[in-house]
Design a protein that fits this description.
Rossmann fold; 16% strand; globular; six-stranded parallel beta sheet
Amino acid sequence: MIKRLGIFGGAFDPVHKGHTQSLKFISDLKIFDEIQVIPNYASPHNKDIQTDEKHRLKMLEVALKELEDINLNDIELKNKTKSYTYETLKYLKSIYPERHLSLIIGLDSLYSFTTWKNWENILSLCSLLVLERKLNNRLGINKELESKISADYDDFFSGHGKILILKNDLINISSTEVRMKIKNNENLTDLVDDQVLKYISNKSLYKI
């Protein structure tokens, strides 16, 4: 059987329970042989990353240490340039030519997917596993993307260019919201893992 690799990228500024719960949810499905978490060096979506990559990497190490078959990949941090998904996938495909690649994204990212650089080429390299969240977004899904939606795992993993939408009850939180709560000294127990909170406090991150 072809090995299946899940790819979970983002700024993780900071990593929070929305990230870790999503990863555990997918890991527990046992549909991937491995999931690689890839933090951005700089966001391609013009997001202003607040914290140095070494801190973001360390927070991810702390948050992910209890999760099985989930590994950190710092390729985008090493490149020290704006991170484009297509370039990362092309690199991964060169390393794992026989693996089926699945890019794990949120429903909000699916809505905007056709604005991504080389989005059609991205779909030639991977499939999209989409975590559905409740959003007040009326844009809907692009018609071309809608035609690629799979009804089951067998179809999804049969080739690249497929889309599978997974319904879930995961926490809906953004890193922006977490940073704001830190600045306001609000309680984050339900939103950020304890060890990550401890690291943030020890390093006095996101206070300014």
